[in-house]
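debug: dumping io for the single-chain case to check the tokenizer round-trip. Nothing else runs in this session.
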Amino acid sequence: MKNKHILFLSLLVITASIFFASCKKNASMEANPATQQQLSLYLTDGPGDFDQVLVEIKSLKVLVDTSADTRKHDNDDWDRRGSDDNKKDSSFVWENLNIKPGVYDILRFRNGADTLLASAGISKGSIRLIKIELGLNHAVVKDSITYPVSLPPNAPNYILIKLKGHECEQYLPGKARLWLDFDITRSIVLENNGQYYLRALFHFYHHSNTGTIAGKVVPSAAKPLVVVFNGTDTSYGLPNKDGYFKIRGLNDGKYTVYINASNGYGSKVIPGVEVNAPKETSLGMIELIK
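debug: decoded output
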């Protein structure tokens, strides 16, 4: 698929952008605190080396465990439950968050930006699954050329995000929220046949129990990619045109920050960067030398 597809995909992105604005203004009705909770899901990205990453989302549902003790279901077959969202169960309720279908340009939500993906009143209980139904119109744009992205052979047309039931932040009585971080570097895979595949991987977090690393990398001609890692976690940041980056959703601990440069500029390693939730650790300006 070449440049002739960009116009079609751009129109879809515009449609989705209009929906985002509408979604922020027209949140669902307030939840009844006796039987419901208000859930807000936000979408952000873990960036990759693309101009655009376009993903078509058709629907968004959550599975709520309304039983008194969700721990007794920890060993359930969640893949089976996720495959049948029409099955009736006395303890579990599927809630449709009623988003409008659209193509989402995931790279719009980087360096601290995000969008309200959905907000709705749902049954009170522990959220154990998030189910994202996908369409067929996925693509990446790299160096102004558009390439189609397919689901892997025999893969289902949905993504299941499995939760333990405690991940959402209860920021007000009856109100919960969670950020979904789409890990683009690991999710968009170029296979040996030259085809891009979508193997979607999400991380989830909220701001009160995670920290942030931010800074500015110059010059932009170095085309830097920021990698933050320690023994258990790895995250990525792609500076904007002015060089600023922000990597959120980091657990407490010490990290190594690796600035991967190109175009003849030398890379840089910054060890021992400490993260403490919910604070932001600033690295200031980082200058790369050619």
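debug: round-trip ok. The two ends are 36 Å apart (CA to CA).
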